[in-house]
Amino acid sequence: MIGSIVGAFIGTILAVIFFIFLFILIILYTCYKIDRSMSS
Predict the structure, then answer these.
(1) What stretches pass through the bilayer (predicted)?
(2) How many whole angstroms separate alpha carbon 23 and alpha carbon 37?
(3) How far apart are CA 11 and CA 36, in angstroms?
């Protein structure tokens, strides 16, 4: 019982970290594209 709770908790944390990482990558990519289009 406790093992499954810990497993679900770790899985949720990993999913949150993954989505935050993906969100940061999208922001950086968008800023990079805007910067490129502004400078040209």
Answers:
(1) 6-32
(2) 21
(3) 37
pLDDT tens-digit readout, 1-40 = 778 999 999 999 999 999 999 999 999 999 999 888 888 7
- DSSP letters, the chain, are -HHHHHHHHHHHHHHHHHHHHHHHHHHHHHHHHHHHHHH-
CA 21 to chain centre: 2
Sequence letter at residue 23: F
Q: How many residues does the chain have?
A: 40
Whole-model pTM: value is: 0.64
Q: What is the C-alpha separation between 25 and 40, in angstroms, rounded?
A: 23
